[in-house]
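Supplementary Note 3. Input sequence used for the single-chain structure prediction.
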Amino acid sequence: MVSDLQTGIWLQSRSLWFAAMALAAVPLLLPPIVPLTDLGGHIGRYAVQLANGQAADLAQWYTFHWQLIPNLGVDLLVEVLAPIMGLEPAVRVIAAAIPLLQVLGILCLSRSVHGRITPLALFALPISYSYPLHFGFVNFALGQALATLALALWIFMAQRQLARWLIFVPIAVALWVCHLACWGLFCVFAGMHDLAPRLRGRIDLQALGRTALGGTCLLVPQLLRLVWPLPSSGHAQTGDFFKPVTKLLYPLMVFRDHWALWDIAGSALLLGLVAWAWQRETEQPANAPAHGLKLGVLALAVIYALMPGTIFGSGMADMRMLPLMLIIALVAAAPAYPRNGWLSRARLAWLGGGFALARVLGNCVSLSLAGQAMAADLHALDSLPQGSRLASFVVEPCTVSILPWRRERRGHLGGYAIVRHHAFSNDQWVIPGGQLLQVHAPLAGEFATDYSQIAKQDGCDKPNTITRQLSRLPRAAFDYVWILDDGKVRAIPAATPVKRTAGSVLYRL
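The predicted structure, written as discrete structure tokens, is reproduced below.
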């Protein structure tokens, strides 16, 4: 059996840090197209953003006006990197950097909490490829990684209150600008970390006051709203209340990607490890950082159970919280390891490293397969003239829930028509106060923006079956129709197929 001393050498080595971060970037560097579901829509918006009104064909349909909103993380990075390396390479670099930063954040947090890398921290590393990232919530995923890094620094500087206050004014602002929810999650954990020692034993009101004062630096972003008020949220939807089945299923979907059994088993393993570790907690000082982090996890668990699924037009808002909660729960754990067996410190460290490596290899395979399929379908757009008006329809099963497990990733592939052909695409979402793109296509009516590109299979008892969508499409508003389904040519009145791929057909109207 490998000794704890030998395990400690590799577990605390710099080589582990470099290897873990490098491997984290690989799955998004390999595919020909970065296959994150919403990323096509984002990249279309970035093209309009970078054109800055100077591209006449885009300007007739889209406008983009900079304004300070708490959802600009990747948008700002694109503004810096795209002029240097081009838009699509810049998006790839940024996307690959997100899991790398998340891995770095997990390792730094473990060092700040325990003074070392723990075996359970290794099990947390694969959460850098969580369901929110696969879905393409890139601003949120970036904000989550930065929040983890910021939390590690917050704990590290706990004894230097003044310096921490000054440093965290710009850090809190940066987190807020990157993504509002990530700033909120960080505030919960940072606040609980500082508050937990004050809640043990006799409560000292003066100490509580000092703790509250030390956290005021985190509230500075709210002052920005007085100077730059947020745009009106308009009719942005808040809903999906009281769905207990979904709430219970989401924790098993933390790794949702390609293979249901593999992904669910991974999530169940981590949940089981948290339960085991928390009930075997070692005795720690009252001011141990882990106490506050666990309180934060419990507080967010209550919020998760009660909050709606959609907040101000942001879908799956509750699901997005779970990866960071699971990361913190694993990193904060300090169990009494048995001396022998599979759950000993040495064995668990090797198992954690093996689990992380297996997950990243699985991500490499699944994302490469998805990226190659998407790149093949994008060849259909090679026949699309510059400045065309494209209506894309992604055909989904009648019901989309936990099954089929492998979700359709092409929901916003039409956004690449904006990037590569300065075309109009009907897949751009407009969320007042949530992003800065505006769509101007009155002829397109309800087919001008997001959700119009989603169609159901014929035979479904749904209003948006593909045949119904095609019959309702305002022909005067579009030049081409792109159907992403099984690649079979359909008989569409007054439409001619011009390019076919394995999973799509482009028609000229």
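The radius of gyration is 24 Å. The mean pLDDT is 92.
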